[in-house]
């Protein structure tokens, strides 16, 4: 008879957040599939457990996943854990669960710590309907496409972000979505936990001056149900003029205004040029 794959959430900071059931499943599993065996070893030590560990992470998920599924098919019980939080949520696990499901192997998920749910529940923003957006891509083009697709999103949005990318992400969110209410949730469940209920503008200004430290979840208010009118050419020209006053070249200012408003760059450029006097001396 086949065994079972248990999906086991682990604490995102506070070790007391491990559940009794998670502890029992870890204790009874034949082996534990871990994202980083060193991190999981520390957790097991804190629980006074000794278990065989196998590595299962982003870059070995195919081969390791196949081996894990074969052991489950042969009757073993596996517990899947990641470094922190719920496996398969911006963490390895999705493929292993899909593989076991495809092979008809039992999969049981335990509820437990998850940064997105913790952040949403404390954010003070509407939680009736929300969407989890994970990490924004590093690649400029995919990042822009992702953000543009969220302009009219009316549900509360949740993002994960690494500290070194947070200032850039806040600026991008502000430029794409406009100034909205947001909760910046830092180091949740840890000693220096902080929940800052603020706006994207205030958060972007703060983190442009203060280097972020720790782990962050951003919770951002959705767009109003009745969307504001789309940006006009006059809005785009006004934004470009602000940039030009700040020292940016006419061509770059037109490009940036076009990106932020979604209007064609050539139209913004032509409208901008038509506002300039022949002797204004702006560099193209
Ligand atoms: N699977 C995990 C979960 O269930 O939340 C998420 C793993 S993902 C690789 C790590 C990201 O989760 C971090 O970059 C951060 O955005 C968020 N995160 C994890 N722990 C956190 C904490 N204690 N406080 C704030 N954000 C946290």
Per-chain topology:
Layout: E1 5-7, H1 20-28, E2 31-34, H2 37-46, E3 53-55, H3 61-73, E4 78-81, H4 94-102, E5 107-109, H5 115-123, E6 130-135, H6 140-149, E7 156-161, H7 166-177, E8 181-186, E9 194-199, H8 200-209, E10 216-220, H9 233-245, H10 250-261, H11 265-275
Parallel strand pairs: 1-4, 1-5, 2-3, 2-4, 6-7
Antiparallel strand pairs: 7-10, 8-9, 8-10
Helix pairs in contact: 3-4, 7-8, 9-10, 9-11, 10-11
The chain binds S-adenosylmethionine (SAM).
S-adenosylmethionine (SAM) is lined by residues 12-13, 82, 84-86, 89-91, 114-116, 160-162, 185, 187-190, 215-217.
Q: Would you give an account of this structure?
A:
The chain has 11 helices and 10 strands. It is an alpha/beta fold. It has 3 domains: 5-109, Tetrapyrrole methylase, N-terminal domain (Cobalt-precorrin-4 Transmethylase, domain 1, 3-Layer(aba) Sandwich); 115-220, Tetrapyrrole methylase, C-terminal domain (Methyltransferase, Cobalt-precorrin-4 Transmethylase, Domain 2), CATH 3.30.950.10; 233-275, no CATH class. The radius of gyration is 24 Å and the shape is elongated. The strands form 2 sheets. It has a 5-stranded parallel beta sheet, sandwiched between helices. Strands 6-7-10-8-9 form a 5-stranded mixed beta sheet. It has helices spanning 20-28, 37-46, 61-73, 94-102, 115-123, 140-149, 166-177, 200-209, 233-245, 250-261, 265-275; strands spanning 5-7, 31-34, 53-55, 78-81, 107-109, 130-135, 156-161, 181-186, 194-199, 216-220. The site of S-adenosylmethionine has 23 residues, from helix 5, strand 7 and strand 10.
């Amino acid at each position: 008879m086949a065994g079972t794959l248990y999906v086991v959430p682990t604490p995102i900071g506070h070790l007391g957040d491990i559940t009794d059931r998670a502890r029992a499943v870890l204790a009874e599993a034949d082996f534990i599939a871990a994202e980083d065996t060193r991190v999981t070893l520390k957790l097991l030590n804190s629980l006074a457990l000794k278990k065989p560990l196998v590595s299962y992470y982003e870059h070995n998920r195919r081969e390791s996943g196949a081996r894990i599924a074969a052991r489950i098919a042969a009757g073993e019980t596996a517990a899947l854990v990641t470094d922190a939080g719920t496996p398969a949520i911006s963490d390895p696990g999705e493929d292993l669960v899909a593989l076991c499901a495809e092979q008809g192997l039992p999969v049981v998920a335990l509820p437990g710590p998850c940064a997105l749910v913790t952040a949403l529940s404390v954010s003070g923003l509407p939680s009736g309907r929300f969407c989890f957006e994970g990490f924004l891509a590093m690649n400029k083009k995919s990042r822009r496409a992702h953000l543009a697709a969220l302009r009219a999103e009316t549900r509360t949005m949740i993002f994960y972000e690494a500290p070194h990318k947070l200032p850039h992400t806040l600026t991008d969110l502000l430029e794409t979505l406009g100034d909205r209410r947001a909760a910046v949730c830092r180091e949740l469940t840890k000693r220096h936990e902080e929940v800052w209920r603020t706006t994207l503008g205030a958060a972007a200004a703060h983190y442009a001056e203060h280097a972020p430290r720790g782990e962050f979840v951003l919770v951002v208010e959705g767009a109003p149900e009745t969307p504001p009118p789309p940006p006009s050419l006059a809005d785009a020209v006004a934004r470009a003029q602000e940039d030009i006053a700040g020292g940016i070249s006419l061509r770059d200012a037109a490009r940036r205004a076009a990106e932020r408003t979604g209007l064609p760059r050539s139209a913004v450029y032509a409208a901008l040029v038509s506002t300039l006097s022949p002797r204004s001396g702006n560099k193209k």
